[in-house]
Amino acid sequence: MLDPLVYLNGEMTPLSEAKIPVLDRGFIFGDGVYEVIPMYARRLFRAKQHMARLFRSLNAVGIHNPHTEAEWMALIGKVASAHPADDQLIYMQVTRGVAKRAHAFPEGVAPTVFIMTNPFVPPAAELCENGIACATMEDKRWLRCDIKSISLLGNVLAAQYAVEHNAMETIQFRDGYLTEGSSSNVWVCKDGTLMAPPKDALILEGIRYGLIEELCETAGIPFQARRMTREEVLAADEVLISSAGRELLPVVRIDDRPIGNGKPGPVFHKLHAGYQEAKKA
Ligand code: PMP
């Protein structure tokens, strides 16, 4: 089996040999942030936006950013070029580092930096043709979902809920209002207008959020950011999810109720075509 080279604190090492001390605050507290960047045909997709979000996450939790953007890009390039796949999903994680276990920030500790990559396999064409099923649950996560934190227990529980309910994703609602999927942003289409929850602290602003806004503009699809109730979501003509790994997928069933006519709709098809074009640009 392929044992790709990864980057850990200044060294390139096979994934199977990369080790961190048990007192790493990522392990002890989930005290860290991460980022996932797609690479298509050996070119990073929306790297600037992903790096800006990494820097925002680090800043929001007060972890020292150990590298300039140019240094980060060079490190990502090293890991990516060591892997044989032309399409990859690059994973980067920074934790607050290794220190005696105590909650408050330690002093004089260097962050732990880890970068790995995996071949990127886009979602099966069948999912785009037939759509996916989603489950729903109350959003039980903290109130800083805008930070791409490695503390993902709420998201893990939501993802497992989907698995146990024959669904591909769990769509979350907080106090009756749509937030996001367990690892995706959620889009709702009604009467030709595409809508998504506002970019606030209750959701992660996906890098695809900005991309889809641009695709709407190009395709002449009106877009509105606003809060939406569960009833509005269930009564939508179309529902979509987006993420780096799933790109853009149509949701045709939510909690065993059909969305629209139960088939992927015209807005999905337009945006999906735009997405595939953007990958090549
Ligand atoms: N929300 C959550 C909770 C996520 O985990 C993700 C995937 N990273 C997204 C939204 C979508 O973000 P992106 O488009 O950058 O993948």
Radius of gyration: 19 Å
Q: What small molecules does this complex bind?
A: 4'-deoxy-4'-aminopyridoxal-5'-phosphate
DSSP, total strands: 15
Secondary structure category: alpha+beta
- Total separate domains: 2
Count of DSSP-assigned helices: 8
- The H-and-E topology, N to C, reads as EEHEEHHEEHEHEEEEHEHEEEH
User: What share of residues is helical?
Assistant: 25-40%
Question: Which architecture of the largest domain would the CATH scheme give at its second level?
Answer: Alpha-Beta Barrel
The level-1 CATH class of the largest domain: Alpha Beta
Mean pLDDT, to the nearest integer, reads: 98
Distance between the termini: 33 Å
CATH superfamily of the largest domain: D-amino Acid Aminotransferase, subunit A, domain 2
Largest sheet at a glance?
9 strands, mixed
In percent, how much strand structure appears in the residues?
Answer: 25-35%
Give the overall form: globular
**Uncertain segments:** none
Short descriptors:
single chain, 281 residues, alpha+beta, D-amino Acid Aminotransferase, Chain A, domain 1, D-amino Acid Aminotransferase, Chain A, domain 2, 2 domains, nine-stranded mixed beta sheet, six-stranded antiparallel beta sheet, 30% helix, globular, binds 4'-deoxy-4'-aminopyridoxal-5'-phosphate
Write the layout of secondary structure elements.
Blueprint: E1 5-8, E2 11-14, H1 25-29, E3 32-40, E4 43-44, H2 47-61, H3 69-81, E5 88-95, E6 112-119, H4 125-130, E7 132-138, H5 153-164, E8 169-174, E9 177-181, E10 185-190, E11 193-196, H6 207-219, E12 223-225, H7 230-234, E13 238-243, E14 247-254, E15 257-258, H8 266-280
Parallel strand pairs: 7-8, 7-14, 11-12
Antiparallel strand pairs: 1-2, 1-6, 3-4, 3-5, 5-6, 8-9, 10-11, 10-13, 13-14, 14-15
Helix pairs in contact: 6-8
Bound molecules: 4'-deoxy-4'-aminopyridoxal-5'-phosphate (PMP).
4'-deoxy-4'-aminopyridoxal-5'-phosphate binds at residues 36, 155, 180, 183-185, 204, 206-208, 242-244.
